[in-house]
Structure formats: C-alpha cells, structure tokens
Design a protein that fits this description.
About 30% of the residues lie in helices and about 25% in strands. The protein is α+β, with helices and mostly antiparallel strands. Strands 1, 2, 4 and 5 form a 4-stranded antiparallel sheet that branches. It has a 3-stranded antiparallel sheet with strand order 3-12-11, with no helix packed on it. Strands 6-10-13 form a 3-stranded antiparallel sheet, covered by helices on one side. Strand 14 and strand 15 form a beta hairpin. Helix 1 crosses helix 2 and helix 3 packs antiparallel against helix 4.
C-alpha cells in the first residue's frame, strides 16, 4: 500500500533528514586511513541518540548495527567491522534516522585517503546518476522514468547498474511501497503523485551489474569483485518538484 504524506508529515521527515545530513557531514570528517567502520558505526549511534533520535536500523529484521558500511566491492548492507580502512578504499555509509517517529534514509560513498582514478570516476558517475534520477521525480512522471535516466547515464559510460536492490517508499516504516528500480523504461510503471516520499539510491558497479551474497545473509558484493558505489537521498514529490529531505 502506498501512503501519501501530508505537508506536516513531510516537514517532520525533513527535520529527520536535516539531522541525518548533519551526521553525514560529521562522518565525512572521520573518514581516513586507519579508522574502522565499527568506530564510525559507534559514532553515528552516539550522535543520533545525543540529538534525540533513534538509529532505526538497529533491530530491523535482526540487524545489529546503526549503519551499513560497505567497502570496495561490497554493494550494500556491509557489516561494520574492526578492521581499519586502508588508503585507496572507498566506503559507503548508509543509515536511517527516526526523529520523533519520522524517518529519513541516506547513503554516501566516501574516499579513504588517495583513491584511484577508477574509484573516483565511479563515485562521480554514481553521484550524477542520483541527481539524474531525482530530476525525474516529478508529479505525473512514472517510476520507469527515474530508472531509465539512471540506467542510460551509467551504461553509456560503461558501468553496471545493480538490479537486485532498489529504492523504496519510506514513512512510518523503513521500507514501504513502491519499489524504485534504478533501471527501466520511460513512461512505464506507477505514476508519481504529490505526497509520495521515496528513496532514490543507485548502486553502480565498475564491472557487471550482478551481485553475490555473503554467508551473513546481508552483505551483497559485485559478482566480479570490482568496485561499487552508492549515493542515496530521501525525496518528497511536491507540486514544486522533488524536495530532497536529506540534502547535505
């Protein structure tokens, strides 16, 4: 079931998004060779609780952490861990904020020290894919318009667009209808309506789009072991165009 949010609900989600964005800005200051993703996870949990929010991912379907921390070939849902990040790594930090019952969700890929041209190119294209998708999040457009904009931009530059994981509606629950694939055909799929709140979160790979799952049942990796990046915003569909609720 798709729930349309009132202006008041969107404003409350925007407040959650502002807190999430502020936390990401602090995370960016921490990213350097030698820090562990466990330390980043502890920081995020502490920061959110200090500011009166709940790290919503803890306990979600048994997940134990405030963040997902996906390194290099990990596409999404990487477990935070004690091993330090190394110079040249890329890491995606993804988390959901619950502020007074209103949710916001955003992932961001960070460079660790000096990264390769390949990694930088991937990050640049993935971030541009995010905003290409957001441009299509207009009343009257269809979900396929979002996916098509992302897919055509990435594939024209030789990158793989992950199919198995998608954006989604968000509201009182982390995952609501509709699903928002990052591939598709223009003019196809559900029509976007004012009051929808969705995530757009392209996961883009240097190589093939296919993934494989770790034994933990959460962490997805690229099938060919090549790099993957992800950027995500929570978006409200409004009469004035897409409103980014998690803008940094």
């Amino acid at each position: 079931m798709i729930t349309l949010k009132s202006n008041r609900e969107i404003q409350s989600m925007h407040e959650a998004g502002k807190l999430l964005a502020a936390c990401h800005r602090e995370v960016a200051k921490l990213i350097k060779p030698g820090i562990s993703t466990s330390a980043i996870d502890r920081f995020v949990e502490t920061y959110l609780k200090k500011h009166g929010a709940i790290p919503e991912q803890i306990g979600y379907n048994g997940y134990q952490y405030a963040t997902c921390a996906s390194v290099n070939d990990e596409i999404c849902h990487g477990y935070p861990r004690k091993e330090p990040l190394a110079n040249g790594d890329i890491v995606t930090i993804d988390f959901v904020v619950n502020l007074n019952g209103s949710l916001a969700d955003s992932a961001w890929t960070y460079a660790v020290g000096d990264i390769s041209d390949e990694a930088k190119g991937l990050m640049d294209v993935t971030l541009e894919c995010l905003y290409k998708g957001i441009e299509q999040a207009q009343i009257g457009n269809r979900i396929g318009d979002i996916g098509h904009a992302i897919q055509t931009y990435a594939e024209a530059r030789g990158y793989g667009v992950v199919r198995e994981f998608t954006g989604h509606g968000i509201g009182p629950r982390i995952h609501e209808e509709p699903q928002i694939p990052h591939f598709g055909s223009p003019g196809k799929g559900l029509r976007l309506k004012e009051g929808m709140v969705i995530t757009i979160e392209p996961m883009i790979n240097v190589g093939v789009w296919e993934s494989k799952m770790d034994a933990n049942g959460w962490t997805a990796r690229t099938a060919d072991g090549k790099l993957s990046a992800q950027y995500e915003h929570t978006i409200a569909i409004t009469k004035d165009g897409p409103l980014i609720l998690t803008m940094q």
